[in-house]
Amino acid sequence: MKQRILKLSVLALLLAGTVSCGNDDSNPKIKVCNVENPLTDLPWLKKFIDESKQGHQVSRMKIYQSSYDDGKIGFLIDICEGCPDAGLLLTNCEGENLCVLGGLAGDLCTDFKIDFENKKLIWKNYL
Question: How far apart are CA 77 and CA 6, in angstroms?
Fold first, then answer.
């Protein structure tokens, strides 16, 4: 009897896992900056990353996707993680540098409300 209950339990778990792992077409992929993948589909960001990989940029770089000014999508680029004089660069989807936060120049992002709590790491380079 115990073995039959065990087999039924395992079967029920497998069935539940199969049902929950199906494709859900009702939730389409969310586009960022009107592209599927900003790392490859935004020419300015792809070039920036390619140059970093070739060693033309500082080697300990991180790129975060974040929002600013209540919903606009942007990118926070930490061009040298752990370098106190580098700071964070805020860019918009078009690649325009909006401001620099921290670094030698100090906090120059007072005109922008940046959502640091929900930033998402999308790329890092450690050469």
Answer: 53
Q: Which residue has the higher pLDDT, 106 or 116?
A: 116
* pTM for this predicted structure: 0.71
Q: What pLDDT, on the 0 to 100 scale, is given for residue 116?
A: 92
Q: Mean pLDDT over residues 79-90, rounded?
A: 85
- Cross-strand pairs, 88: 78, 101
Model pLDDT, residue 31: 83
Measured between alpha carbons, how far is 35 from 59 in angstroms, rounded to an integer? 27
**Cβ partners under 8 Å of residue 43, min gap 6:** none
Distance separating the N- and C-terminal Cα atoms of the chain: 60
pLDDT in the model for residue 4: 39
How far apart, in Å, are the Cα atoms of 40 and each of 25, 43, 83? 24, 7, 27
Q: How far, in whole angstroms, is CA 59 from its chain's centroid?
A: 18
3-class DSSP assignment, residue 11: helix
Instruction: Write down the residue that tokens 């080697």 correspond to.
Output: 59
**Distance (Å, whole) CA 94 – CA 42:** 8
